[in-house]
Amino acid sequence: MQKNVMEYLEHTVKRLPDKVAYANEDTQITFQQVYDRSRAIATLLSNDGFYKEPIVVFMEKHPNEIVAFYGVIYAGNYYVPVDEEMPRYRLELIFKSLQPRAVICDENTQRLLKGLPFDGKVYRYDEMLATAVDEEVLDRIRDKQIDIDPIYIVFTSGSTGVPKGVVACHRSVIDYIDNLSEVLRVDENTIFGNQTPFYVDACLKELYPTLKFGATAYIIPKSYFMFPMKLVEFLNKYEINTICWVVSALTMISAFGALDKEVPKFLHTIAFGSELFPIKQFNIWRTHLPDARFINLYGPTEATGMSCYYEVNREFGPDELIPIGRPFSNTEIILLDENNQVPKPGEEGEICIRGTSLTLGYYNNFEKTAEVFVQNPLNKSYPELIYRTGDIGKYNEYGELVFVSRKDNQIKHMGHRIELGEIEMAASGMDGMKSACCIFDDIKKKIVLYYVADAPASELAAYLKSKLPRYMVPNVIEALERMPLTPNGKIDRVYLKSKYMTEKTGKPQVDSR
Amino acid sequence: METVLEILRGLHPEIDFESCDSLVDDKIIDSFDIVSIISDLNDEFDITIPAEEIVPENFNSAKAIYAMVERLMEE
Questions:
Q1: For residue range A154-166, what is the model confidence (pLDDT) as tens digits?
Q2: pLDDT, greater one: A480 or A486
């Protein structure tokens, strides 16, 4: 029985030591190199006394960063990826929450550590590689390791303003990777083109299947996602045949007509997720790549990567939604209505996930963990956890699960999961802020912030840019005299949303982005 | 040209767009900006910017953006 994710690498390195595992335009790393270098890193971490703790990996998105991740795992620790894209403020919150004792940097990120609440050990990735591998030390670590030991923490948006760190272990990742690979039909000939950042769990799709099957993963430069033709050229240059991108990256290509000029002709598997795919854009892709497999993936970070899949097997009209489909093998989806009962077929309920795929919970936050990782209300006999996603779904006439809406104020925007509450909390931090309320225009895909304060919108815009990741900065910021309230005294979001949607044009607004 | 500058200033009021010619190279504008800029340009000038025009050279400065817009308006 496999108990450690690195066993994927150990099997592959014997078969294909000199095959390229990870690459970008300047660098290629073979499986042997991944193996040797990660074990050198692990030896050093272990000799320096780091064991069973979070190790921050703060590097530029690069094949080397992946090696650093594995080095942390080999040493019996869990990696916490952070990125210079994250605003200072967020990095500070993460460091405060984690209190890590070590960080692995590269020559570019090392200087960014200054000013962060961290006084532990700073490692330079390139220097770590000089360490001689100590097989005995690593064997001992492996001996003691069990499959519920954590391997990473990934931070997601928190509605109270503090990001939540989701802790995942070997077992749920192995469960995910084995089942995902089957659906995607990954094999030795798979060539991935990675788009998703390394600080979200979406990148698991390229990282671990590459190890398991001896495939190759290219890391596409982020800037190419601004220029659709460059993107398609990259896909063809490296003969990329499998991509798992957020919808907005795919629509970047289709919306600007790039596929009419050049088709990524090697693509045979296109997985997408994290947002609804506008049918018009989807059909453009389908028309240009009629023989490719298109697979919709759905799942929260809390259930390790993705939980459900749907392979497109019929035509979709402009008003239809591509279903979420069915759970991966070894995962169960349970719908629960307001009474915690299973709704009748075709009726809505909250999507809940049961299975080994559940992560361990949130780091340093037992309270929030207990709110969403709960006892299965349908099971009165013995302890059994389910994860409540906060997504509402229902089954269509084909028995496929379809996403209906969120239960609350979480949105998907530019491929990212965002709690509107986090934006509101950030705004509330500004001096003089009396009230703030965020709504989402899901038609034009704009985040709209209403606020009550004396400061002008431009000041609030500048303030928020320094506090929030780029994709969370509101597109529109408007000052109000006072916040409309419901009879209960809560901010009347429904009113604000309908006010915005009907008044979109002709009102003086600051486009803060 | 003034319209182009307004669109850019709306995204990054702190940048001097009249003189900067390395907007893309220096990562002053990013992928969110590009999508926003293209959308605004299409609306304001009643053009449709095709994929082959969406290249770094056309977005590195306000001048380059405006030159592209003029070219497309003529077609």
A1: 998 877 778 899 9
A2: A480
Instruction: Report helix, strand or coil for A131.
Output: coil
Q: Which CATH architecture has domain B2-74?
A: Orthogonal Bundle (1.10)
Q: What residues in A contact B31, CB-CB < 8 Å?
A: 222-223, 225-226, 252
Residues on chain A touching B6 (C-beta within 8 angstroms) = none
d(C-alpha A232, C-alpha A342), whole Å: 45
Task: Give the C-alpha separation, A431 to A446, whole Å.
Answer: 25
Chain B residues in contact with A258 (beta carbon < 8 A)? 51
CATH topology for A220-349+367-408?
Rossmann fold (3.40.50)
In chain A, which residues have their Cβ closer than 8 Å to the Cβ of B33?
513
Would you call B30 an interface residue with chain A, using a CB distance cutoff of 8 Å?
yes
Of the candidates A257, A511, A513, the beta carbon closest to that of B51 is on A257
Q: Are strands A416-419 and A410-413 parallel, antiparallel or unpaired?
A: antiparallel
Are the C-beta atoms of A437 and A477 separated by less than 8 Å? Answer: no
> How do residues B23-68 score in pLDDT, each as one tens digit?
998 888 887 788 888 988 988 899 989 999 999 999 999 999 999 9
**Residue A485 carries which DSSP code?**
B
Taking the C-alpha atoms of residue A244 and residue A240, their distance in angstroms, rounded to an integer, is 11
Do A220-349+367-408 and A1-168 have the same topology in CATH?
yes
- What residue segments make up the domains of chain A, in order of their start? 1-168, 220-349+367-408, 412-511
Which of A498, A494, A492, A496 is closest to A478 using CA atoms?
Answer: A496
Question: Does A257 contact B at CB distance below 8 Å?
Answer: yes
Beta partners for residue A56, in sequence order:
A80, A103
Interface predicted TM-score (ipTM) of this complex, two decimals: 0.82
A407 touches chain B (CB under 8 A): no
- Under DSSP, is residue A64 helix (H, G, I), strand (E, B) or coil? helix
Q: Provide the angle, in degrees to the nearest 10, between the axes of the packed helices B2-11 and B62-74.
A: 130
3-class DSSP state of A216: strand
pTM for the predicted model, two decimal places = 0.87
- Residue A222 to residue B33, Cβ atoms within 8 A: no
Q: Write out chain A residues lying below 8 Å of B10, CB-based.
A: 511, 513
Pairing assessment for the beta strands A54-58 and A78-82 based on DSSP bridges? parallel
CB contact under 8 A, A229 and B51: yes
Report the CATH architecture of A1-168: 3-Layer(aba) Sandwich (3.40)
**Per CATH, domain A412-511 is 3.30.300.30:** yes
Cβ-defined contact of B51 to A258 (cutoff 8 Å): yes
Residue A248 has φ and ψ, to the nearest 5°, of -65, -25
